[in-house]
Design brief:
By secondary structure, the chain is an alpha/beta fold. Among the domains are: about 1-70, OB fold (Dihydrolipoamide Acetyltransferase, E2P) (Beta Barrel); about 95-125 and about 230-395, Vaccinia Virus protein VP39 (Rossmann fold, 3-Layer(aba) Sandwich). The chain is built from eight helices and 22 strands. Strands 7-21-22-20-19-16-17-18 form an eight-stranded mixed β-sheet, sandwiched between helices. A hairpin with a 7-residue loop joins β12 and β13 (about 205-210). The chain is globular and about 65 Å long.
Length: about 400
């Protein structure tokens, strides 16, 4: 019989496997517990932080038998009561990659019912990689980050995963207005901008410092990116993802390409030369700010059409496509988008995903529509955290 656990209860458990979302599974008298700051194979003392009918949550408060992969977190604010950003800092970088591989395998086996074995590729140092940071000030105006599963702001003096050009330590020394959201962006051309908004309402961020539009250089092309437009967070991500998308897409002269959730045009920019003047790209994106950037980025390319709108609503207006590229939000594309893409009968679909569970779900939809997952690569674009980026290629299933 499963025992009901109580918040604040302290237990000794064996940490089992990694779970999607940065937690690790433990069990106690039939109760399932999702544990933060563990490593599989460890025996630990944990404290229950929330209790429920189907599962419970807990934090490691003492490691009784330590894994060989446990390391001292490089950041002094990465601990149970600290910043909620980096949930894997206590794990060696090599083991982090293996754990992320296990998560991908488990999600595809459970959701898509297929066996996927893919190495998660390192893309650079585990620190100093993040080009976009959203921080928060406490009521006293100290810069920090929200703690895990709380609303409390943890003041910090440094963020070790922030790119050096962000100069986060200098920003942390400033006296800010209290209860503000501070969005910091640093481009690879040396620009930095800061936008502010109140945490207690839904007001749009306003530019406080630096240019309103940043310039990012990717594979010989300079793109304009407004502060409110999405841009990949890892400094190496734009080049890595663009290179793989281009390789997977194998576009040809004269192709009609759909760039769905296309943002400011990162992937469209690397496919332009391949399709030539006789090809065309339809970029569809919901953010008006991003499509305004895209219009400027492709002002000299008449064969790029930029559409502002909901992807699922716009797709029915399109009759066919040779290649489809999509980079949806964390929730994934969803069944209706997959059905519409399949209706267009593209010869290749390249899917960029920041959540393996959503990708696995959508893979199941593609399989049902006669498309096979023929290639997949995974990248550690969020070192020190549980997040993973994948690029998947779908092609029409060959019928013997």
């Amino acid at each position: 019989m499963k025992r009901t656990l109580v918040v604040g209860e302290v237990l000794e458990v064996d940490i089992e496997k990694v779970a999607h979302g940065g937690h690790f599974i433990a069990r106690h008298e039939g109760a399932v517990i999702f544990v933060r700051h563990g490593i599989p194979g460890e025996k630990s003392r944990i404290e229950i932080t929330s209790a429920g009918a189907s599962f419970n949550r807990a934090d490691v408060i003492e490691v009784l038998t330590s894994s060989a992969d446990r390391v001292s977190a490089p950041c002094e604010f990465s601990h149970r009561s600290g910043c909620g950003g980096c949930d894997f800092q206590h794990i060696s970088p090599e083991r982090q990659l293996k754990l992320k591989r296990e998560v991908i395998t488990e999600q595809f086996a459970r959701i898509a019912k297929i066996d996927i074995q893919v190495d998660v590729e390192s893309v650079g140092p585990a620190l100093g990689w993040r080009s976009r940071v959203t921080s928060t000030t406490d009521r006293n105006g100290k810069l920090g980050f929200i703690g895990s599963r709380s609303h409390k702001v943890i003041p910090v003096s440094q963020c070790l995963i922030a790119a050096p050009q962000m100069n986060f330590d200098e920003l942390a020394k400033r006296q800010w207005k209290g209860d503000m959201r501070v969005e910091i962006a640093a481009s690879n051309t040396g620009e930095r901008s800061i936008s502010l908004s109140a945490t207690r309402d839904e007001s749009k961020p306003r530019l406080s410092e630096g240019p309103a539009v940043l310039h990012e250089e990717v594979l010989g092309v300079t793109l304009e990116v407004s502060n409110a437009s999405f841009w990949q967070g890892h400094i190496n991500a734009p080049v890595i993802l663009s290179t793989v998308v281009k390789e997977f897409a194998e576009v040809e002269r004269g192709d009609h390409v759909l760039d769905l959730y296309g943002g400011v045009g990162l992937f469209a920019s690397v496919l332009l030369e391949e399709i030539g003047e006789t090809g065309r790209i339809d970029l569809v994106e919901g953010s008006k700010t991003a499509t305004a950037d895209a219009v400027r980025n492709f002002k000299d390319h008449q064969h790029v059409k930029v559409v502002t709108g909901d992807v699922v609503k716009h797709l029915p207006r399109i009759e066919s496509a040779d290649v489809v590229v999509l980079d949806p939000p964390r929730d994934g594309a969803g069944k209706n988008v997959v059905l519409e893409i399949s209706r267009l009968t593209p010869r290749r679909v390249v899917y960029v995903a920041c959540d393996p569970a959503a990708l696995a779900r959508d893979t199941g939809y593609f399989l049902a529509q006669g498309y096979s997952l023929t290639k997949i690569r995974a990248f550690d674009l969020f070192p020190m955290t549980h997040h993973i980026e994948c690029v998947a290629l779908f092609e029409p299933t060959e019928v013997s």
